[in-house]
Amino acid sequence: xxxxxxxxxxxxxxxxxxxMAPEQITPELxxxxxxxxxxxxxxxxxxxxxxEYGVQFDPQRIPDLSSxxxxxxxxxxxxxxx
Length: 82
Hints:
By secondary structure, the protein is mainly alpha-helical. The protein has helices spanning 8-18, 39-53, 68-77. The longest helix has 15 residues, at 39-53.
């Protein structure tokens, strides 16, 4: 998965929450490498994505969505308009 496959809206949303430049948002980005991706910001990400794309994640899956690639994959499974 390349950076170009991350929708601009998702890239901007994540960059804003993680206080990073949009070009730093890559599929490989995950909780282990982003210093401020803690449980609070993880919840912010989930809520922002749900609001932006009109989806609702299964609460049991939320802890597993710990990388940009996994978030994008879950959005695609939900049929979100990316």
